[in-house]
Amino acid sequence: MSQLVLDRNARLLLQAKAHHLDPVVLLGGNGLTEAVIKEVDRALTAHGLIKVKVPSDDREERTAIFEELADKLGAAKITQIGKLLVLFRPIPEKEETQETPKVKKAAPAAARKTGAKARNNRKRLTEMIQNKNKEAKSLPWGKTVKKGKTPKGQVKAVGAKGKTLGSRLASKNKGISEE
Q1: Each residue of 40-75: pLDDT tens digit?
Q2: Residue 81 bridge partners (DSSP)
Q3: What is the rounded distance in angstroms from the CA atom of residue 174 to the CA atom of residue 169?
Q4: Rounded distance, CA 56 to CA 29, Å?
C-alpha cells in the first residue's frame, strides 16, 4: 500500500484532534516487528487516529519507522513530535448484516392509559356530579368526587408546616405570606 496524502488544513485539524490522545501502541526493544505492524493496523481500524510511541533515541530510525508504518498500512503521516508518531487512516464502514435490529413495538392503543386520558375522565365525571347527573353517582367511585377532592380519594400532599401543598400555594398566589 502507499501512503495516504492529506492537504495541509486536514493535517492541522487532525493534529489538533490528536493533541489529547494517549499513545495506543508502544514499540518495544525489538523495534518494528510484524506483530507491532498488525497491532498498529488494528488500532487504526478501530480508532482512525492514533499515536505510536517509539523508544529509540535515533531520529533517523524514528523517521524510518514512521515512513514504513505509513507505507505498509496506507495511513497518512500527521506529525512526528519527539518519540511520538501520529498516524491517520479513515475508519472503514462496517458492512450491513442480514440481521435487522429488534425494534420495540408499541402496546396496542386500547391497552395504553395515559395520564391525560385519566385526568380528562375525572374532569368529565366531576362535571357530571356537580351538575347532579344521576348516572355519575352510580359509577364505582362517583360518590367520592366532590369539589376539591380527587376521584379515588387520594390524600393530598402535606408540606413541612403541616398544611396541604395546594393551600400553601393558593395563599401565596393571593399575596399572603406564611413566614
Answers
A1: 999 999 999 999 999 989 999 999 999 999 999 999
A2: 84
A3: 9
A4: 8
The per-residue pLDDT for range 94-136, each reduced to its tens digit, is: 765 566 666 666 656 555 556 777 777 777 767 766 666 666 5
Would you say 122 and 97 are in contact if contact means Cβ atoms under 8 Å apart? Answer: no
Burial class (CB in 10 A: 0-12, 13-18, 19+), 46: exposed
Helical packing angle, 59-73 and 34-47, nearest 10°: 60
DSSP structural state of residue 131: T
Phi-psi group of 28: left, alpha or beta (phi > 0 → left; psi -120 to 50 → alpha; rest → beta):
beta
d(CA 86, CA 103): 40
Backbone angles phi, psi at 157, to 5 degrees: -70, 140
